[in-house]
Amino acid sequence: MKYEWKKEEKNLYFPKSIPELITVPKQKFFILKGKGNPSREAFAEEVGVLYSLAYAIRMMPKQGYCPAGYFEYTVYPLEGIWDFTEAGKRQETLNKDELLYTIMIRQPEFVTQEVAEKAIEIVKKKKPHPLLAAVSFEMLEDGLSVQMLHLGPYDTESQSFKLMNEFIANHNLEKRVFAHREIYLSDARKVQPDKLKTVLRYMVKPIL
User: Fold this and answer.
1) In this predicted structure, what is the pLDDT of residue 72?
2) In CATH terms, is domain 15-206 a member of 3.20.80.10?
3) What 8-state DSSP symbol labels residue 117?
């Protein structure tokens, strides 16, 4: 039976539309780092490279290579950690050109460094791209976090962040880092802005 993250990991990917506290375990990712407005064509290319690697692993058995522990699964959604340059943090209005981002796609537990490198080799042969040299394979752990589901355009996320900040303050918590994580449950190319679903997450810790 195919592993469906939408069914098996609802606590991580389908939170309520109000803030809640959650503990996020260690997870494996293909990662790319960048700077600038995500509406740039370069950003779309970066996303495409990550998906090409994710699907390379998903399809490995059909290519004659089956990693140890492999199981059928649905490819995980795109995620991003968003921050600002120091100049961007000082500006009163949002300047997307000053955004710093780390975009990623989670990989199943059976994926090792060796399997990740194999995927990069496969994509280099079938669909070469200079960005492949910048991709890393890493394990990240958000740990204790506050998250909620944001419904609507990305430009209205500030409304949800306000609720999350109030929740953090009211529960004797503080953010561990300025940056936040977003998980994109909708394809912005196919879904109307008011129908977009995005998980928003802050890493937090108790105030002692």
Assistant:
1) 96
2) yes
3) H
